[in-house]
Amino acid sequence: MMSRLRLLLPLAWRNLWRNPRRTVITILVVGVGLWSILSFAVLLEAWSRSSRDTTLKLTTGQIEIHAQGYLDDPTVAHRMAPPSGDLEQLLKSSEFQTFASRVRVGAIVQSEYKTLPVTLIGASPDAERKVSVIPSQVRDGRYLSGADDTGIVLGRNLVRRLKTRVGKRVVLMVQAADGHLAERAFEVVGVFAAPEQTENEFAFAGIKTVQTLTGIADGISEVVAYSGSDDALPELVARLRKAAPGLDIQSWATIAPLEYAVSTLFNQFILMWLWTMFALMAIGIVNTQLMAVFERTREFGLLQALGMRPRLVLFEVALESTLLIGVGVALGVVLALLSVQAFPNGLDLGFLGRGAEMVGAGHILYLHVNPADFALYSLLVWVMSVLATLWPARRASKVSPVEAMARAAI
């Protein structure tokens, strides 16, 4: 077998360049097709990662723990005690990276000029810095200095709508535990940047300050936890539910179903694009290979007349196709790598950024090459394209020497 391969390999390579125009066109078809598949996969993976990270690192986290009924009626009436016992021990184990407790209630914020609804989050700054990027996104002023900080941090767009600024005071009104409307003046100490929806929705104050305002003592609304890997989430959620059977414990897939769908369904889009591009490539490849076989009818008949068996003719044509498509695959991989390297600082979506925010992604997508995906998609395109050329190769092996010589005489 190896001796035949050594004999046919140089012959197959030379045969490719007997018609260089057709060979170059086929290489370009395969290369551009694979480039589009790999580039699309990188782009969608970046979008998926951006959507996931934006969702998790703003306010959601990987796992959220609430009192029963809180998700249906997010008020201080559905509060819980801080983690303790088995629940606290599990959250502090090595299986979790970090967790943070919060008070989270609906509120009304009022400035000198406007009144708007917000979600007030009472946070512990040290814990919050480990579960959210918002403390690092303060663009004016500062973040909270402690759990009893009496200042408030607002979103950039919310500040514009309220026509206020750092150093000014706003009034927060919330429903307290006993049912009355509690209100308090807060000094705006910081302005954070985030997706527009987050800037409009959330306001942050010290957790002890919010607990005092709502009259819930040391009660909390939620615990946000990170485990690091999404693969382990179902098992960890089950263990947390066992440790605290009276609480409502959900993963981010349940809390943020739209973002989870965006994050997971992109893999299906990649496969759909792969099959679409392969169908288009296969049409071009099979067409050019059939033309080559028809043009070389006399050659194949002569080879068989000289003693080459039909299966060796089949093998030679398949070998030519393998080399041809292999060069196209290599070209596609190089083009995809160059395309990714063209954006070392990420791909700025520009005017599409606001639309990206609607599905939880950021303005900038950071492109990364996944070697496993590149190898898998390249191999699939190579193998499927070679399989598509077996039909022309089989036609070549079925050429009759007598018929071939007769066609040549005509």
Textual characterization of the structure:
This protein is an alpha+beta fold and 410 residues long. The chain has 2 domains: 2-55 and 260-409, no CATH class; 63-226, no CATH class. The chain contains 16 helices and 12 strands. The chain has helices at 2-16, 20-60, 85-91, 125-131, 156-162, 196-201, 207-214, 233-243, 252-255, 257-295, 297-305, 310-341, 353-358, 371-388, 390-397, 401-409, and strands spanning 63-67, 98-110, 115-123, 138-141, 151-155, 169-175, 181-192, 202-206, 222-226, 247-251, 347-348, 364-365. Strands 2-3-8-5-7-6 form a 6-stranded mixed barrel. A two-stranded antiparallel ribbon has the order 11-12. β2 and β3 form a beta hairpin. The mean pLDDT is 80.
Overview in brief:
With 410 residues, this protein is an alpha+beta fold. Helix content is 55%, strand content 18%. It has helices at residues 2-16, 20-60, 85-91, 125-131, 156-162, 196-201, 207-214, 233-243, 252-255, 257-295, 297-305, 310-341, 353-358, 371-388, 390-397, 401-409; strands at 63-67, 98-110, 115-123, 138-141, 151-155, 169-175, 181-192, 202-206, 222-226, 247-251, 347-348, 364-365.
What is the count of β-strands? 12
Give me the strand/helix succession: HHEHEEHEEHEEHEHEHEHHHHEHEHHH
What's the story with the biggest beta sheet?
Answer: 6 strands, mixed, barrel
**Overall structural domain count:** 2
